[in-house]
Model the fold of this input.
Amino acid sequence: MTTRPGPSPNAAFFGDDDEAIAYNRAWFNIMRAHRKFHPRIARALKSHGINDPIWYEILLELERAGADGQPMAALEDKLFVPQYALSRHVARMEKDGLLRREFIADGRRKQILFLTDRGAGLHTKIWPTYWEAMQTEIGQHLTTEEAYALSRLLIKLLP
Done:
């Protein structure tokens, strides 16, 4: 007769009868953390005219792309933003004079995004505020080693 090992220490800590619930716990806690921190960090960026933290990432990726610009489809893939949401952000950023887009006809509708003079380098001006907001909101909850460990785990979820 073989004995079955008991629940893992983590399952015991959470009181889970079925260890598969760990995946549900991970998902719900990722979503809760997002809902907790996103509005607070977004509020800090508004002082720079940035309406959503994704705008920072868009500006950074366009800066990295340089003079050749960034195809919108590639940006969707890099940032994990659905086309409809990215289009909405790009339209607002274009209206605010941060970027411009060119439409290229190649059998399908294709857009290339470019920074404007106003958008160029803006991510570097925003960074100190963004950094401070992340430190304030997240730094008080994790050690640097925990932050690195969490980052490594989250990266495993991305392709």
Summary: Residues 38-43+52-156 form a domain with the Arc Repressor Mutant, subunit A fold (CATH 1.10.10.10). The mean pLDDT is 92.
